[in-house]
Amino acid sequence: MVRANIRIILPIGQQKGAVEILGRYAERTRFLAGCLSCRLYHDLLDPKAIMLEEVWDDESALNRHLGSDSFRDILLVIEMASAAPEVSFIQFSEFSGLERIERVRGDGSGF
Q1: pLDDT tens per residue, range 61-75
Q2: How far apart (Å, rounded) are the C-alpha atoms in residues 50 and 69?
Q3: How far apart are CA 33 and CA 13, in angstroms?
Q4: Between vectors from CA 69 to CA 68 and to CA 72, what angle results, nearest 5°?
Q5: Which CATH number fits domain 2-105: 3.40.50.150, 3.30.428.10, 3.30.70.100, 1.10.3730.10?
Q6: What's the confidence (pLDDT) of residue 30?
Q7: What is the arithmetic mean of pLDDT over 93-104?
Q8: What integer is the mean pLDDT of 94-107?
Q9: Which residues contact 14 (CB under 8 A, 6 or more apart)?
Q10: Lower Cβ count inside 10 Å, N or C end of the chain?
Q11: pLDDT at position 92, please?
Q12: Is 34 left (phi over 0), alpha (psi -120 to 50) or beta?
């Protein structure tokens, strides 16, 4: 799996338009083959910052998407930014959830 994070700092006046573009983008993207999730976040500690997080099945699915016409929406929003975006791609081979907490704690509390 590969997780893509893009954090964008936008002038307050550009936020509404950017969120509309990214919201439509996220709705379309989450149904693409190979996309496990696509979420849009607003940073409560920095009102100018929004973050897009995508999780892809594998690197080839992500790469297909990065080269797609749809990804141009992201590039458009990046052009609206007031600073260079923070972009990261994290590849991982193992995923766990609550069961890991239960396994490590082992105290039967459920958490």
Answers
A1: 999 999 999 999 999
A2: 22
A3: 34
A4: 105
A5: 3.30.70.100
A6: 96
A7: 82
A8: 82
A9: 80, 82
A10: C
A11: 86
A12: left
Candidates 71, 82, 12; CA nearest to 47 is: 12
C-alpha–C-alpha distance, residues 95 and 88, integer Å: 18
Note the pTM of the prediction, 2 decimals. 0.83
Query: Which of 57, 60, 12, 17 has its CA nearest to residue 38?
Result: 57
Long-range contacts, stretch 53-56, CB < 8 angstroms, 24+ apart: 53/3, 53/4, 53/5, 54/3, 54/4, 54/29, 55/1, 55/2, 55/3, 55/4, 56/1, 56/2, 56/3, 56/4
Residue with the two structure tokens 């907490």? 101
Domain ranges of the chain: 2-105
Q: Which two tokens stand for residue 110?
A: 């459920």
Retrieve residue 39's tokens: 């979420």
